[in-house]
Structure formats: structure tokens, C-alpha cells
Amino acid sequence: MWIDTPVTRFLKIRYPIVQGPFGGGSSSVELAAIVSNLGGLGSFGAQHLAPDRIKDLVADLRERTAAPFAVNLWVDNADAAMADFDAQAFARHVEQLKPVFTSLGLDLPAFPNRFGQDFDEQAEALIEAAPPAFSFVFGIPSPDILKACRERGIVTIGNATTVDEARAIEEAGVDMLVATGAEAGGHRVSFLHAADAVLMGNFSLLPQVRDAVRLPVILAGGIADGRGIAAALALGADAVQVGTAFLACDESGAEPLHKAALFSEQARQTTLTRAFSGRLARSIRNGFSEHAASDPGAIAPYPAQNWLVRALRAAAVAQGRSDLIPLYAGQSASLLHHHSASELFGALVAETDEAFRSAAGASRNQYPPGSAARSTT
Ligand SMILES: Cc1cc2nc3c(=O)[nH]c(=O)nc-3n(C[C@H](O)[C@H](O)[C@H](O)COP(=O)(O)O)c2cc1C
Q: Is the pTM of this model over 0.85?
């Protein structure tokens, strides 16, 4: 039966279906709890949260579900280019964005004390709160952090975009990994290579990762229905991580503007862009991403660009400006049609059952038709 895999056994969940974490406010406790209560692994992206909020978050999640769930963090805090990013560099980038701030009726932002959270402080809070699982991207936490997770019974889940990264995650003693193909929505989470140099699709990535490591492998990227789940499992995955399809559901924390775009014709065209955060991410093409493509030098390094875009986001949303906000989406967004997370989860399970049933039927009856007769002659 397809639901019994090393991932379901290790995590003590019923179905090998992970709801992908969403950083930046697009996760919700409600969505993660629904998925966990239905027997998948709900996740919450906590990359943007201050350490004390992470403790509250884990308490909230525990209140909503007795089943396992994951909390997700970004391991590295800043790109190397941030070392030289001073008030002058900030002012130059603000100047580039001046027409956007002005069109939204916003004052230009002042140089902040900090652009993002400190991973070590976040990890300390997470370990103290001890969620059932800790997934992480953009690197591997220190041996001390991994040891503390093991001692507290927190299952660790790394993220790889290449075979080298999968091997490094295994060598570090992490419990399982997510292999993320270039189809996936959101950031390319590469950490040993430049993100744009290693854009492997899942049909190439998964079998190679499978051959290289013994860890349980969860496949992420472009999986939006039961056909995708069945294909991933047939190709060697022990579970799947579904992002965009859950992001589009009413219960996620994404803006209604973003969800509307996911269900629109616009979702057929995604692009990999640094425009919204300074790091490469898959998003629906819009005015902001197209403008940045014409002038990549105008994009500040992560996390400064992320901070700048967040500074204009609330006003852009309030004014219905979907051309100015990140519309993160994977390449299968055009397949979406569920607005309810529990309906989506039920459909994923039923469709996967059906895909395996019809594959079994096809092999009994021989495919292509007539091949049995030909093979006997
Ligand atoms: C809006 C958005 C935010 C995301 N944020 C994170 C994150 O903070 N951490 C993470 O591990 N993955 C993040 N992801 C990736 C998803 O968890 C998931 O792996 C990915 O969406 C799977 O590909 P799919 O969108 O094609 O289903 C994000 C994806 C999206 C669309």
C-alpha cells in the first residue's frame, strides 16, 4: 500500500503527504493543523518570526493538533554581499524603488536596525519549544543544534537541490531530506552551489538523490494532484511535499490577491527571479519581476531586498496592486482547483489511490494494447 513508507513510519503519520512550509507570513496554524489532523504532516514557515513568537507558535500548533507537525527555518541569515551593505547602499536601492513607494503614497523607508531574524536565536527557541519536526533550508544547522534536536526527539528534515547537498545532509546526521526540483514554488534553497547554476527538474534529481543516499526522501516541486504523487512515489520518493496547491487554499496565510492570481491564467507563466527578496525564487511573472529582469543591478542582496519589498507590501495589497507583490507559485499552479485544504487533502489521497489502481489494472491488461499478443509470437 502506497501510504506505508519510511517517512510515514519515522514521523508516525498516516499519509506520505507533507504540506510545504511557507515563510514570510503565508503559513497559518489553521492550515498546518488541518493537514496534520487529516494524517499528513502540516508545516509552518517561521523564517520571519522573532524567537519568542516561535515558542508561541509551537504552543498554538499543539493546541490545534495532537498529531506531528513541522516548523521550518532558514539556516543562513544573509548573503555575503550584505557585509558591504551600509546606509549608503541602502539609500541607493531605496532611490531605485522611489517611484513604487511614491505611487503607493508611502514615505521612503529609513535604514533599519536589522533586516531579518538571527537563525541561532530562532533555533534556540525552536529547540526549547520542541516541535515534533524541524525542517530547514539554505544550509545545515551546526552539529550542536542537530545534537540538541536528537536529544529532544525533534525529527530533522533538510532540503537539497542537488546530489552533493543530499550527501552533505546525510553526512551531518539529519533524519530525512526534501529533494526540491526547479519546478517548485518559492525560493531555490541551494546552499553548496549558486542557485541558478543547479536548476534540476525532479525527473533527473530524484533518481540521482535516491541512488546517492539512504535517508528517506520527500519530493517537492510541481506536485499538485494524485497523478504527481503516484509518479513521485513510483520514481522512488518516500513522500511528497505539496506547496502551491495548499497555499491557494482559503486556510493559508497568503493574501487573497495572491490566491486569485494562482487560480488565474497568469499562473501559467512563472519565472525564477531575485526581484522580491534578493534570492532566486519561482513566482508568477508580474510587473515587478519583469522590471527587475531588465535591471538586475537594482536588486539588493538578501535580506535587504526582502525587507524593502515587505516595506511596500501592505500598501500594495490594500490598493490591489498584484503587479507589485511576490506571487510565489510552482510550475503546476495551472492544475489547481481546490479552495478548501481538507477537500484538497482528500482529493490527493483519492487520486493517488486511483492512479495506483489504474496502473495495476493496466499492467494486468498489458499496455500498450496488443503487446501481449505480439510478445507471444
Ligand atoms: C509562498 C511560498 C513560500 C515558501 N516558503 C518556504 C519556506 O520558508 N521554507 C521552505 O522550506 N519552503 C518554502 N517554500 C517551498 C514549499 O514549502 C514547497 O517545497 C514548494 O512550494 C513545493 O513546490 P510546489 O509549489 O510546486 O508544490 C515556499 C513556497 C511558497 C510557494
A: yes
Spatial neighbors of 370 by CB under 8 A, at least 6 apart, are none
The whole-angstrom separation of Cα 63 and Cα 46 is 17
Superfamily of domain 1-78+117-254+340-377 in the CATH hierarchy: Aldolase class I (3.20.20.70)
Residues framing ligand 1 (Cβ under 6 A) = 20-23, 26, 45, 47, 72, 135, 137, 159, 180, 183-186, 220-223, 241-244, 247, 328, 330, 332
Residues of the chain with CATH 3.20.20.70: 1-78+117-254+340-377
pLDDT along the chain (377 residues), means of 10: 96 98 97 98 98 98 98 93 94 95 97 95 98 98 98 98 98 98 98 94 98 98 98 97 98 98 97 97 96 87 97 97 97 97 98 93 61 41
Ligand 1 centroid vs 370 CA: distance in angstroms?
A: 44
Those residues with Cβ within 8 angstroms of residue 267's Cβ, 6 or more apart along the chain or in another chain:
261, 284, 329, 333, 334, 336
pLDDT of residue 208: 98
239-242 and 17-19 as β-strands: parallel, antiparallel, unpaired? parallel
Cell numbers 487573497 correspond to what residue?
Answer: 256
Mutate to test the pocket of ligand 1, among 187, 190, 272 (most ligand atoms within 8 A of CB): 187
Q: For position 117, what pLDDT does the model report?
A: 95
